[in-house]
Write a structure and sequence with these properties.
The chain is α/β, with parallel strands linked by helices and 176 residues long. The protein has helices spanning 16-19, 25-32, 43-55, 84-94, 98-105, 125-138, 160-172, and strands at residues 6-8, 37-40, 61-62, 65-68, 71-77, 111-118, 146-153. A hairpin with a 2-residue loop joins strand 3 (61-62) and strand 4 (65-68).
Length: 176
C-alpha cells in the first residue's frame, strides 16, 4: 500500500521570473511534484509555484491540484505564526522582570528593536546590520534614539558554513 507524502517549504517561493533564472528550475519543480502535497507559508508563495507549473511547465491543473507523471500533487497554504495577543500579554508581563527593567534603564529615551533569528545565511543578519547602519547614517538624529538588539541562536549541529555566517555577522555588528 502506498502512503501519501507531503513537503512543506519553509522559505518563500519567488515569482516565476526569478525562479526561471535558475538553470535547472524545471527539474527542481518537476522533482517537487513527486509529493502528493506541497505546503507553502503564504498564498503568494503557493500562487508563484502554481504559476510556474501552469505557464512554464504547462502542467494541467484543477484549482490547486496538478496532474503529474507520478499522479496528482496538491498545493496548499499552511501559515506559520504566533498568537499575537498571547505574545503581547507576555511582553507586558515581562516589563516587571529585573533584566527587562535594567535593559530599559540603559536606553533612556531610546526605542529598542529586538530581532531573534537562527544563525543562518538565509536570515539576512548582515543585511539587517547594514540596513540599520544606513538608517542611522541617513537619519543621524536617530542614532541615540533607536537601538537594535539582535539575538542570534546557533543551530544544534556544527556546520562550517553556519560558523562562517556567524563570524561574518559578528564582524558586521556594532559599526555605529
Amino acid at each position: 500500500m502506498m502512503q501519501e507524502i507531503g513537503f512543506f517549504l519553509h522559505t518563500p517561493w519567488p515569482n516565476r521570473s526569478v525562479v526561471a533564472a535558475l538553470p535547472q528550475h524545471r527539474e527542481l519543480a518537476e522533482a517537487m511534484l513527486a509529493y502528493d502535497l506541497i505546503g507553502f507559508q503564504t498564498d503568494q508563495d503557493r500562487a508563484n509555484f502554481a504559476d510556474l507549473l501552469r505557464n512554464d511547465l504547462r502542467i494541467p491543473s484543477w484549482g490547486s491540484t496538478f496532474r503529474t507523471r507520478a499522479g496528482t500533487c496538491r498545493l496548499a497554504t499552511f501559515p506559520i505564526g504566533i498568537d499575537a495577543q498571547d505574545f503581547a500579554d507576555r511582553a507586558q508581563k515581562a516589563t516587571a522582570h529585573p533584566e527587562v527593567r535594567r535593559l530599559r534603564a540603559s536606553l533612556p529615551g531610546s526605542q529598542l528593536i529586538i530581532a531573534v533569528d537562527r544563525i543562518d545565511y538565509s536570515k539576512g543578519l548582515i543585511q539587517r546590520f547594514r540596513a540599520m547602519e544606513k538608517l542611522l547614517t541617513r537619519f543621524p538624529k536617530l542614532k541615540h534614539r533607536l537601538s537594535l538588539l539582535q539575538i542570534a541562536v546557533p543551530f544544534a549541529f556544527d556546520d562550517r558554513s553556519l560558523s562562517l555566517a556567524a563570524a561574518r555577522a559578528r564582524r558586521s555588528r556594532g559599526r555605529n
